[in-house]
Amino acid sequence: FQKIFGSLEYDPFGRLITKGNYYSTKENDLETCSQLIKIAEHLPHFTVIEVNGENFHNAGATIVEELAFSLASGAEYLTQLTEKGLSVNKVAPKIRFRFATGSNFFLEIAKYRAARLLWAQIVKAYGISRDDMAKMTIHAVTSKWNKAIYDPYVNMLRTTTEAMSSIIAGIDSLTVGPFNE
Hints:
- The protein is of the alpha/beta class and 181 residues long.
- The chain has helices at residues 12-19, 26-39, 54-58, 63-83, 88-91, 105-125, 152-168; strands at 6-10, 46-52, 95-101, 137-142, 173-175.
């Protein structure tokens, strides 16, 4: 089980934000979250819940807003799932954050570093037993909203810069959009 890495990306709160409704109901979706966490309990490198900050970024949020809304969503998952009886020690390591990386090179690096620091503080406030369980798992994607339609080769330069800032910031995984996306 130590060699299995991956994620399911189940995000009922993200669904609510983008579509206006849950997959089923709030209660059913949170129960599904609980079940997924229990199923993946023995897979230390496998996350099942996703906090999708990309939704905020591509809707026009600033770096600070994307970070704040994403951390608030993550904290809401911690609150809702610990109220259902799960331990924060089981919930926090099963959450993965997905952020979009824009073209502001140094601020994007700072965003990821701040995200890790702030998430660790949030998780510690919930009473996690070990500091290593407060580590934030981050998947980065290159931004969509700043891409050109008529000159796709400019997009290669933009995605290269975005990917570079994500990698320098130490993210866990990365998706680079194709230049003609």
